[in-house]
Design brief:
alpha/beta; seven-stranded mixed sheet
Length: about 450
């Protein structure tokens, strides 16, 4: 058996397989093994590129040089727990375990402690699909020394994804998994927003839709109306979106649009579910150009609100859980993984670079002005959907989010002082201790990170 490989990969699905393929293309020696429960997806030319494929975790760890680096990609739940336990039993002190599985971030905290007890470094890394490439977006988070050790492989595998040679550290603790969770919720919301906007146009324009949508437009976001938009994720991805909403509740961060979209995607087979109540769809008389303008504006502002909610969630985790996330770098990675939203994300990244620690995207003057300019389009689209009996849950939630911020006389503003700051309630402590103590102190017990 060949030995001395630089990277080990346990679990070969589409994302992890393409990651290993990219590493092999950049002269990194990779040994890989299938994992029970993971649908095997060997990329083309996998073997031709020199990737060593073995059967089982024991053979995989034996094929690695030491100190070893092992990437774990297993399905969440009991199979991930078993794979992690087996990996800890086989790895040695000084090895690095890169957890690239999708999991609840608090579980990652407990796995980090278990690894530290055996002197094994632990890195939480999210893998996200990339619209521009087969290679996934890499979202690493953890102790600086673990990130530094893995950084050369990050840059070799995905050089397009990082802003500079020192970039790549997105935050402390299980921030990689938390960011993947927020990213999935955002992509889920984007898919629902596009679906609602396209439905409005198709019903409103009828046979005329094709001609109107082929008219040249300047904004790249308009391409979502011309062609199918981002696809809804698999059921396991939608579960990550639910987790993001759950984290928002725990951190008292409103995620109206992300929550509405996660609920809407549960009605994936709407037509079949509504069979007893169905009536033929028909088009509705409407001024074509004004409807296109309204729907395009509604989509643009809904994207802004959805990104604002996702970034507010990251800010809350960064501040209250001590993740110390690098928000501009996170936005840069998201930007590298999308095509038609790249310009919008570039503007969002500039806002966070101009105002470090920006608590909410709507607090930026330029975005606040843009949202107020476009909110009438969003209002018109939601109203039009109601008139035509077309459900628009994500668009309506984005409008409620805007109205909540713009109304200075909501009841909550009448009972709290103007200098109100969030503080944990003594009878309802955070479920997760701050990362500074959890990941950097050995005195913390596992009970400090249990779910409540």
């Amino acid at each position: 058996m060949e030995v001395g490989f630089e990277i080990g990969l346990y679990g070969i699905d589409v994302l992890s397989g393409n990651l290993a393929r990219s590493m092999a293309q950049h002269d990194i020696s990779v040994s890989a093994s299938p994992c029970p429960g993971v649908a095997l997806a060997l990329p083309r030319d996998f073997i031709a590129l020199g990737v060593n494929v073995v059967a089982g975790l024991p053979a995989l760890t034996e094929s690695l040089r030491h100190p070893a680096i092992l990437i774990l990609r297993a399905p969440r739940g009991p199979l991930l727990d078993a794979a992690f336990a087996d990996a800890l039993a086989l790895l040695r002190g000084g090895d690095l375990l890169v957890d690239a599985s999708d999991s609840w971030f608090k579980d990652a905290s407990l796995r980090a402690r278990a690894a530290a007890a055996k002197d094994i470094s632990y890195l939480a890394m999210g893998l996200a699909p990339n619209e521009n490439s087969d290679y996934p977006i890499l979202l690493p988070g953890g102790r600086p020394e673990a990130v530094d050790r893995f950084r050369p492989f990050l840059h070799a595998a995905a050089p397009f994804a990082f802003a500079g040679p020192k970039a790549g550290s997105l935050g402390l603790g299980p921030s990689g998994h938390f960011i993947k969770m927020a990213h999935t919720a955002m992509e889920n919301a984007a898919a629902e927003i596009v679906r609602e906007c396209r439905t409005l146009l198709e019903r409103g324009l009828g046979a005329e839709a094709g001609d109107v949508l082929r008219t040249p437009r300047v904004d790249p976001l308009f391409e979502y109306l011309r062609s199918p938009g981002p696809l809804a994720g698999a059921p396991e991805d939608r579960e990550l979106a639910y987790w993001a909403v759950r984290a928002g509740h725990e951190l008292e961060t409103p995620l109206l649009t992300l929550e509405a979209a996660s609920g809407a995607r549960a009605w994936e087979n709407r037509e079949a579910l509504a069979e007893p109540f169905c009536q033929p769809h028909r088009s509705y008389p409407s001024d074509s150009e004004s409807l296109v303008v309204a729907v395009h504006g509604a989509m643009a502002v809904a994207f802004i609100i959805a990104y604002g909610e996702a970034l507010a969630l990251l800010n809350a985790a960064s501040d209250r859980l001590g993740f110390r996330m690098n928000i501009p770098e996170i936005i840069h990675l998201w930007r590298g993984g999308t095509a038609w939203r790249s310009r919008l994300l570039g503007e969002i990244q500039a806002a966070f670079e101009l105002t470090p620690g920006l608590p909410n995207l709507l607090f930026d003057d330029d975005f606040s002005e843009k949202v107020m300019e476009l909110q009438e389009h969003l209002r018109h689209a939601v109203w039009q959907g109601d008139e035509w009996n077309i459900p628009t849950p994500a668009l309506a939630a984005a409008l409620r989010y805007i109205d909540t911020f713009r109304d200075a006389w909501l009841p909550i503003n009448l009972v709290q002082p103007s200098d109100f700051h969030w503080t944990p309630r003594p009878d309802r402590p955070l479920a997760l201790a701050p990362v500074e103590s959890e990941w950097e102190e050995d005195s913390l017990t596992a009970s400090d990170t249990t779910l409540v």
